[in-house]
Amino acid sequence: MRPEILLLPILIPFASGVLALFTSRKYRGMVALIAAAMNLALACFLFKANVIFTAPWAGFGFEFILRAYQFSGFIIGAAACFAILITLYCTVFLKEKAFSNQFYAYLLISIAMLNGAVLADNLVAMLFFWEGMLLTLFGLIAIGRPGAFKTATKAFVIVGICDLCMMAGIALSGHLAGTLTISKISLDITGLGGLAFILLMIGAISKAGSMPFHSWIPDAALDAPLPFMAIFPGALEKLIGIYFLTRISLDMFKLDPHSWVSMVMMIVGSLTIVLAVSMALIQKDYKRLLSYHAISQVGYMILGIGTLVPAGIIGGLFHMLNNAIYKSCLFLTGGAVEKETGTTDLKKLGGLWKKMPVTFACFAVAAVSISGVPPFNGFFSKELVYDGALERGMIFYIAALLGSFLTAASFLKLGHAAYLGKISKENERAKEAPIQMLLPMIVIASFCIIFGLWNTLPIQKLIQPILGERLEGHNYGGFPTNMMLVIATVAVLLAALINHIFGVKKSGSGLGAVDHIHHAPVLSGIYDKAEKRLFDPYAIGLKIVDVVSKIAWSVDRGIDWVYNVFFVDAAFAVSNGIRSLHNGSYAAYLAWSLAGAGLVIIFLMR
Amino acid sequence: MPALFFLIPLIGVITLNLPFRKLMKKTAFWFAAVLFIFQIVLVSSHRTSFWGTGLVQGSFFNVNFYVDHLTLIMLFSISIVSLASLLVARAMISDENKRFNFINLLITAAIGMNGIVMVKDIFSLYVFLEVAAVSAFIMITINKDKPALEGAFKYILLSAIATIMMLSSIGLLLLIAGDTSFGAISAAISSSPQSMLVKLAMAIFLCGLFIKGGLIPFHGWLPDAYSAAAAPASVLLAGIVTKVSGIYTLIRIVTSLFGFTPAVSKVLLLIGAASIVIGAFAALGQKDLKRMLAYSSISQVGYIIIGFGTGSVLGVTGAVFHLFNHAIFKSLLFVNAAAVEKEAGTVDMDRLGGLSQTMPITGTTSAIAFLSTSGIPPLAGFWSKVIIIIALWQAGYIAYAAVAVLTSVLTAAYLITMQRKAFFGNIAPGLERTKEAPLAICVASIILAAVTVGVGVFFPFVFNNFIMPVKEILIK
Fold first, then answer.
1. Interhelix angle for B146-177 vs B221-228, to 10°?
2. Is residue B120 a contact partner of residue B26, using CB atoms and an 8 Å limit?
3. Nearest CA in chain B to A567
4. Is the residue at B17 inside a domain?
5. CB-CB contact of B77 with B88 (8 Å)
6. Phi and psi at residue A179, in whole multiples of 5°?
7. Alpha-carbon distance B60 to B67, whole Å?
8. By the CB < 8 Å criterion, does B149 face chain A?
9. Tens of pLDDT, residues B58-102
């Protein structure tokens, strides 16, 4: 295999993305679909490859190195699968939209950038592609509904700041290691190394959408085109963010489970799980609810990898794959509902299962998956994360379990409110989505079942090779060995069901199933504040910036005053003073001259 | 041969006045114009057979003439400014007799100035200084109005003091050296550098020159004389007379006779800086256009002195370059002031406005002159100022360099104010019917503006071929 082939997964999607931009509306979908198919074929071809492509680049150690191996092949393959399914979905969903050329272009360029970032074996080259994804992210949000530009800016600022941290981290680790080649870097986390790790970690987890870098995702859920949510926060960003987190945790830095960075990652993970899912619980919009889950699920991945024990890491990576599967499926069902009913507001939905049975089935499969019901895929990955978390501390396990409870509760609520109950009048004429939309959902949903029942397949074939020698011969496939964990999980799920039945009875509707939690004494106040974005780091940041800019403005006015008023007045005061001395008196002039002459003579004669 | 530079005008003045006075009155202007143009051509084509290959020395009635590159630059400035003054006089002085007298005085002043820059004898130098000064006194008062008489009177009195100082100094030097030629005095001074008499002579001579050059605090006469003088006289006075009799002489005396000592440098830098700052501040508050230009002159002369005060090659060449540039753009500004005075009838800036609309040539050339004075690239004034500032910096006088830089902001401020009040904006009430200045004034302003722009644009050529060779005055 020639090493130049590694350029193709970058060049082909990029070129077809540019092409799609200039294609007429009729053929755009076709172009994108062909490109996605070619990308998938390439990904399959590279799946088991082990190639390195090196080209001299800017100098100063900035070499352009692409490296295909087990892990990158896995990520590229997964991304290619999602890309083609979502593109297929879009051919219908975006058919009427004028901006579809931009959407396809940004999507394909994102794929190119993702492929590049995953393949790159040089930190600077990786950063280049990584930032490319930031640009397409901005574009994809901005083409959404009117006003999406603000959300796009928000996403750009948040992710951009985190990428800046990553840039600093790259510079620091390059300085410490003496090389920018990822596979050659091996750093300790003492001193500056720890700082470098934290900076790189911020870049990675912010891409994945972890708290506290999450606040653009719920806004984008409403503003951006829906397929964007399915592919970007749903799949691609998780893949690349967690991929890079794994790379730095396993390859670039020498970490062991007792290091402080492990603790940091687990705390971030646990907090993300609990806080985001708590917010998801009270949402009244299909897409917005899902978007909080997109944040919450990242917590499991970070928690799993943060444990730094094999079970946790495998759980985290497997969860990354599973989450991409069921989360994109969930978003796609949301898109189908939006397309058929024209809304995603849960108050206006209800009883859709009769009208859209396939969509409902796909939703149900994905929902039980994400809730971690055995034997769906989410169950197995969560069990592995629990296993790892329990090994590191009871508190993390409890947080993860609490997250599970709330996830199940919120999906019971969502499913009940959208698909069960009474159908509203506006939706009487809703019908099943077209086949191009159903097919991706069915394929993805079936993977929920396949990866659940035959979980040994992805774990043994895809994920365990990534860890290699760290496994020490263990095999984490198959049904969990620790029955206590399984029992606890099932108990929590049952509790969620009981809670749901209790809530429905109390409020009288599926939508109000969690109102008793929402309006609980202490929680309601916190929820109100959270809904008003008092805890949104971006909003807080904006307020701080506002104050700083006001101070800077007044300082600027002050400086202006010094220049425009003070200096001018002072100059004219001096001028008038000098002028009043020149009173035309000959005697005065003569006196000055003689005094001056006297001084000069004395000075020179000295 | 160089003696012709004052012989021909001298003979010319005599012939103009002896027979056929009536006929001569008509041809006087053309005679003077040809005379000055001839001088311009001769000087700018230097290194011809006229000048020989090297420096030219000659003698006439015991007066030693001496031409080097500094002299050439001064001769060029003298002729071009005199020509401008002549053109302004043609337009501004309507009475034929007065004009004839003025032209005679102008030629006499030119004789004086040509003499100043060419002699190498301290007493002859003094004689020519007086020739130039006396002609200038009369030219100021050519219109016999009261302010002009007052201004000229102040000038005469302070000049008299300067004369006394210089004469005493010359006496002292004669006592020391037994001769008045530069070479003899220089040799005598270098043989006894610590002599108190020499120091006293030097101090008195310098003070006399400071008065002549109008430096702070010896400047009392200057604003009154410049602003009250008849328009063509103010062009000549501001443009060249004070520069030659004060500043050129200072440069020549210090380099040829006394040499740079740390004390001299200190005095020059201090007085230069004071002139720059106080002149600029005083100019800022003026309402009278010509008075503002007078204070601006003080400030600009400060730049020359401060650059010269460094004593370095770069500083001295920069100072000479600024001297030349200042002669050009300050005469240009005074020519413009004359045009405004003639057409608008006033030089009070509060009553002027929008004159660019009716006087486009005057407005444009004034803009060129003020940009050059403020030191805006690529005009000539920028280069000389920059050289002076670099020289200050290189010589380690960083505070003085800062003063020079900051004050150029003030320079720009008052000149922009002038330009805006007089030429830009809406036309002031009562001035709607003004028209472009007479042809003679326009020709003068265009010539001067062209020189300023040309020297700026072809700066490397001009600087390397004409200004840089001036450094020979530092090597004795």
1. 130
2. no
3. B410
4. no
5. no
6. -150, 155
7. 14
8. no
9. 545 556 677 888 888 898 999 999 999 999 998 888 888 888 889
Instruction: Judge whether B90 lies within some domain.
Output: no
Closest CA to A319 of A268, A362, A369: A369
The 10 Å CB-count burial string (b at 16+, else e) for B251-277 is bbbbbbbbbbeebbbebbbbbbbbbbb
Cβ atoms of A132 and A149 closer than 8 Å: no
What would the pLDDT profile of A11-51 be if each residue is shown by its tens digit? Answer: 888 888 888 778 777 777 778 888 888 888 888 887 777 77
DSSP code at position A184: G
DSSP calls for B249-309: HHHHHIIIII---HHHHHHHHHHHHHHHHHHHHHHHT--BHHHHHHHHHHHHHHHHHHHHH
The beta-carbon neighbor of B281 closest among A578, A592, A595 is A578
Q: What is the pLDDT of residues A106-145, one digit of tens each?
A: 888 888 888 888 888 888 888 888 888 888 888 888 887 7
With b for 16 or more beta-carbon neighbours within 10 A and e for fewer, the A288-303 pattern comes to bbbbbbbbbbbbbbbb
Residue keyed to tokens 């003689």: A594
Q: Does A586 contact B199 at a Cβ distance shorter than 8 Å?
A: no
Long-range residue pairs from B12-17, CB within 8 A, at least 24 positions apart, any chain: B12/B107, B13/B104, B13/B107, B13/B108, B13/B111, B16/B100, B16/B103, B16/B104, B17/B104
Q: What is the pLDDT of residues A191-200, one digit of tens each?
A: 787 888 888 8
Q: What pTM was computed for the model?
A: 0.61
Q: How far apart are CA B82 and CA B84, in angstroms?
A: 5
Look at B263 and A604 and tell me if their CB atoms are within 8 Å. yes
- Probe site for chain A from B172, B281, B409 (most A CB atoms < 10 A): B281
* Structure tokens given for A179: 């090389």
Angle at B306 between CA B182 and CA B458, to 5 degrees: 90
CA distance A583 to chain B (A): 10
- Give me the DSSP letters along B436-463: PPPHHHHHHHHHHHHHHHHHHHTHHHHI
Q: In this complex, is the C-beta atom of B284 within 8 Å of any C-beta atom belonging to chain A? A: yes
- Please tell me what DSSP assigns to residue B466: I
The residue type found at A254 is K
Exposed, middle or buried, A542 (CB in 10 Å: 0-12/13-18/19+)? middle
H-helix or E-strand spanning residue A234: none
Domain count, chain B: 1
Give the Å distances, CA to CA, from A400 to A90, A272, A300. 34, 10, 7
Q: Is B375 helix (H, G, I), strand (E, B) or coil?
A: coil
Q: Is residue B463 part of a domain?
A: yes
- B371 with B456: CB under 8 angstroms? no
Does residue B44 belong to any structural domain of this protein?
A: no
Contacts of B213 in chain A (CB under 8 A): none
Q: Do A605 and B199 touch (CB under 8 A)?
A: yes
Which phi and psi angles does B427 have, rounded to 5°?
A: -70, 135
Q: Which of A574, A576, A593 sits opposite B218 (nearest CB)?
A: A593
Of A586, A595, A603, the CB nearest to B217: A595
Evaluate whether ipTM surpasses 0.85.
no
Q: Which domain holds residue B355?
A: 262-476
Q: How many CB atoms lie within 10 A of CB B348?
A: 14
Q: How far is A556 from chain B (nearest CA, A)?
A: 21
Q: Is there a contact between B119 and B252 (Cβ–Cβ < 8 Å)?
A: no
User: B205: closest CA among B281, B129, B304?
Assistant: B129
CB contact under 8 A, A597 and B218: yes
Query: What contacts A366, CB < 8 A, 6 or more positions away?
Result: A325, A326, A327, A329, A330, A333, A444, A445, A448
Answer yes or no: do A586 and B220 touch at CB < 8 A: yes
Q: Do A590 and B158 touch (CB under 8 A)?
A: yes
Q: DSSP letter at A285?
A: B
CB A403 within 8 A of CB A273: yes
d(CA A128, CA A62): 11
